[in-house]
Amino acid sequence: MNKIIDIEVSKSYKVHLGHENYKDIVQYVDGGKKVFIITDENLEKLHLKELTTILDKEDINYFKFVLKPGEDSKSLEVVERIMNAMAAQKMSRSDIVIAFGGGVVGDIAGFCASIYQRGVEYIQIPTTLLAAVDSSVGGKTAVNLKSGKNLVGSFKQPLAVLCNLDTFKTLSKEEFNNGVYECIKYGILFEREYFNIFLQEDFDVNSNRLLEVVERAIEFKAKVVIEDEFDFGMRRLLNLGHTFGHGIEQASNYKIKHGFAVGLGMEIVSKISRSLNEITEEELEEILAVMKKYRNIKLPTISSQDILSYVLVDKKIYDGVINMIIPKSIGECEIKEVELDKLKELYYLGTNNS
Ligand code: GLY
Residue 34's domain is classified under what CATH number? Predict the structure, then answer.
């Protein structure tokens, strides 16, 4: 079964979710437009043909720019290479960029689309659970600097999002679970029942609830983005686990993938919440249990000092305070302003270190 979810922000668009739905691209691209596909080497081998067969059939002229998989590709140097390739293909403002891949591809392709000739349209085609439930929707684009993750970016809503759930079948269990953590995040933020799916079931790519889980996650995200597109208010809730998570991800040199790092970040803020007498002991145990359940990887050791050094250049810092998202219960969180000099203290409270 296929679904359409409407995202009604400054520029409204549709998320096409289901199976064999790449053919829906013809609603957005016609033979008069050039298409510039940004993807990575893995996706090029595994799934790109499903899309290019349709483009070929419709006589749509396309070019490919293939990235090395991994976070290292999300750099300004790669942006420049992409821009030069777009210019070499004489892409104009009426042409279209396609982001075909996971979060790295989506973030950099969206950023390139937002700045090339001051902005061209782009379509997100997320091929991972993580990208489907988070980065492909909401219009945040970014690349990393050496000093921090996502420090350069823009808001640019896509023209449409096309997600074929079958692409998740080729994800490793680690990559799939990487996305599960972002789903669990929506449960802790907004709905106990949704959280329970991950606690009570062994949720995996073969689950007959996959479509429902992804659809609900996108709906949770859409609600927030519709309310606060430019991230000045409630959209900050989506950063649950991200303050420490981004620090962990960077301090591990991206060996710990985003979702797992956010999972560790959610553990820390849940422990902080318990110390502040917000969530109950039972809720903390449930959160810790669900986090552990999907962590099918061996974590490298990283120093608290390294983690904190990255947290202190986080872009969520305004006027010397950072907005930290703290669970009040499973299904409800609040945004707390934390002075930077209190951050270390809270971190140690949340990691039981001293
Ligand atoms: N990934 C968080 C957001 O889109 O706001």
Answer: 3.40.50.1970
Q: Is the C-beta atom of 149 inside 6 A of ligand 1?
A: no
Question: Among residues 138, 169, 200, which one ends one of the domains?
Answer: 169
For the chain, how long is the longest CA-to-CA vector? 63
**Pocket residue to mutate for ligand 1, from 136, 186, 224, 238, most atoms within 8 A of Cβ:** 238
pLDDT along the chain (354 residues), means of 10: 95 97 95 94 98 96 97 97 98 97 98 98 98 97 92 97 98 97 98 98 97 98 97 95 94 94 97 96 98 93 91 80 94 93 88 63
Using CA atoms, how far residue 293 sits from 3, 36, 216, 240, 283, in Å, is: 29, 40, 21, 19, 15
CA 278 to chain CA mean position, Å: 27
Domain span holding position 195 = 174-352
Question: Which residue among 7, 231, 240, 262 has the greatest number of ligand 1 atoms within 8 angstroms of its CB, and so is best to mutate?
Answer: 231
For 81-150, give the DSSP string: HHHHHHHHTT--TTSEEEEEESHHHHHHHHHHHHHGGG--EEEEEE-SHHIIIIITSS-EEEEEETTEEE
The answer on 113 and 51 residing in a single domain is: yes
- Give me the number of domains the chain comprises: 2
Which of 142, 169, 196 lies at the terminal end of a domain, its last residue? 169
Q: Which tokens go with 194?
A: 């949704």
Q: Rounded CA gap, 269 and 275, in Å?
A: 10
Q: Which of 167, 171, 176 is nearest to 125 (CA)?
A: 167
Give yes or no: residues 165 and 189 share one domain. Answer: no
Report the alpha-carbon distance of residue 187 to residue 240 in Å, rounded: 11
